[in-house]
């Protein structure tokens, strides 16, 4: 399609026929991550802006879904998984295994993926961080976050997320 390779064009800028043609011609991969882990990463990347994780979470909740940063907005509001048929959904924490499969399917070598960091280390680190950060939140904030990310939690298998309860 002639407009496919334009610079930073959003899908919403195309008409339905163009969207259907483009989506049908690509392999669509969606990378997903536990929403609580995304919040932790956003907080850690912006250290110094908010004095505590709890105040950062309150700012996220006060800002809301529509005015928020893509770093912590619910994934379903960014990627439309109910409207776009993704060929692959890759879960953060299983990147080595899933990317190896994708590269194999694409006929590319998968031997040099993430040699210095294993998925187990990533999962352990985020489990520990989640426990620490979650304990800083009030019961009300925990409930509000679970509600804020309810559609992500319903759409993707984040069964071990602290927000799933």
From TrEMBL:
Its EC number is 2.8.2.-. GO terms for cellular component: Golgi membrane. Pfam families: Sulfotransfer_2 (PF03567). Its main location: Golgi. One of its GO terms (molecular function) is sulfotransferase activity. The keyword Membrane applies. InterPro entries: Carb_sulfotrans_8-10, Sulfotransferase. Keywords: Carbohydrate metabolism, Glycoprotein, Golgi apparatus, Membrane, Signal-anchor, Transferase, Transmembrane, Transmembrane helix. GO terms for biological process: carbohydrate biosynthetic process; dermatan sulfate proteoglycan metabolic process. Transmembrane segments: none annotated. The keyword rRNA-binding does not apply. It is a single-pass type II membrane protein. It is found in: Golgi apparatus membrane. Belongs to the sulfotransferase 2 family. This is Carbohydrate sulfotransferase.
